[in-house]
Amino acid sequence: MTLIPAAAIIAAASVCVLAAGEADKVPALPSTATPSLLGFVQVILALMLVIAAILGTAWLMRRLAPGPLGGPARLRVVGGAMVGPKERVVVIEVRDTWLVLGVTASSVSTLHSLPRPEDAEAAPATGLPFAERLAGIIKAKSGSGGQA
Fold first, then answer.
1. Which of 76, 56, 60 is nearest to 68 (CA)?
2. In whole angstroms, what is the distance from residue 107 CA to residue 27 CA?
3. Looking at residue 30, what DSSP letter applies?
4. What is the pLDDT of residues 66-98, one digit of tens each?
5. 65, 77, 98, 131 - which has most CB atoms within 10 Å?
């Protein structure tokens, strides 16, 4: 063992002994670095509050927003075709009228308007097919879940 590391160890030990003797005279500061149960509970409550605010806002928007989220859809896309990298021609059905729209990256313009053809398929009258299928699956699972 060399003389320099031994001297460093002795000096460090003496500083620790002196600091331990002086520690009784200095008042202890509150520790903010140690996690506590109260801090953990505050974080959990804050997260629950944020999640509740998001769910409440989504519910409120669903109740107040007009259109497909709040009621039956009044528009239906009949078809469309790409005519360029960012350009399309889209046929939209609004009640008994078909609108031919030109859609670009910066604008939408009406190209033509015509009455709905007699041989065109009718728009779905109620709800979305996905919603109906999901309701059927949930009903089937709840019916078979009680028997098993």
1. 76
2. 70
3. P
4. 655 445 557 788 889 999 899 999 999 888 888
5. 98
Question: In this structure, which amino acid lies at residue 59?
Answer: W
The token duo for 60 is 């409120």
58-75 burial, b at 16+ Cβ within 10 Å, e below that, comes to eeeeeeeeeeeeeeeeee
- CA-based nearest residue to 87, from 105, 75, 69: 105
SS3 93: strand
How far is 120 from 91, CA to CA, in rounded Å? 13
Indicate whether 51 pLDDT > 90.
Answer: yes
Radius of gyration of the chain (CA): 35
Joined together, the tokens standing for residue 2 give 């060399």
Q: Which residue has the higher pLDDT, 32 or 94?
A: 94
Q: Length of the chain in residues, anyone? A: 148
Q: In angstroms, rounded to a whole number, what is the distance separating the alpha carbons of residues 110 and 92?
A: 10
Q: Tally the C-alpha atoms within 13 A of residue 101's C-alpha that lie toward its C-beta.
A: 18
